[in-house]
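in:
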């Protein structure tokens, strides 16, 4: 399986990192080795002094598709979840400055937290609230209604470049409030009223 991630999909997050608003979705990949194994803590990698949490709504693809039209995109997923796109912000900044690819900062081992998935019928997909709590305080508070590109548009867009396969996961971008994590932090992800994950940072 592969993980396809969307960057800069929420206007307030673009502002907080002083990024440019893109004309098209920003897309990057994580390998399957990036997935944090269930019930494992997240170990801050030694190569970064500034790892940030980015809580994101996840889509699990349910069948093969390529060149999917937006109006048919809803047929390609049944489940929605929540996860974290851990980002070594200091390394990413170096890569951005040099115009180099981001993978070292975004695709390292453990950088993809994939929480519980739920049937999409449990949610109003285009008006779905989600939060990240750090040590029981809400640090990111998002709603899919603020996405620049909606879920069906994202599926259509990425399928123009990559054949989607059953089990692939799309990270749909983070809202504002990203920040540094520290040893002993507890990160809890909430989607609507469901607790999708709880991660200990080491
Ligand atoms: Zn992200």
């Amino acid at each position: 399986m592969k993980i396809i991630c969307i960057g800069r999909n929420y206007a307030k997050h673009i502002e907080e990192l002083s990024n440019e608003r893109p004309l098209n979705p920003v897309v990057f990949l994580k390998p399957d080795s990036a997935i944090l194994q269930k019930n494992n803590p997240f170990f801050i990698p030694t190569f970064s002094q500034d790892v940030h949490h980015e809580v994101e709504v996840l889509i699990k693809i349910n069948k093969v598709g390529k060149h999917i039209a937006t109006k048919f995109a809803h047929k390609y997923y049944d489940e929605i979840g929540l996860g974290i796109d851990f980002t070594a912000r200091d390394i990413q900044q170096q890569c951005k400055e040099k115009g180099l690819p981001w993978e070292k900062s975004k695709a390292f081992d453990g950088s993809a937290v994939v929480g519980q998935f739920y049937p999409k019928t449990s949610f109003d997909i285009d008006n779905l609230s989600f939060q990240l709590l750090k040590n029981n305080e809400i640090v990111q508070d998002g709603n899919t209604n603020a996405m620049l590109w909606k879920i069906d548009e994202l599926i259509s867009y990425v399928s123009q470049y990559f054949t989607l396969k059953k089990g692939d996961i799309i990270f749909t971008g983070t809202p504002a409030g990203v920040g540094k994590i520290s040893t002993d932090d507890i990160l809890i992800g909430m989607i609507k009223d469901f607790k999708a994950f709880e991660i200990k940072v080491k």
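note: The two ends are 27 Å apart (CA to CA).
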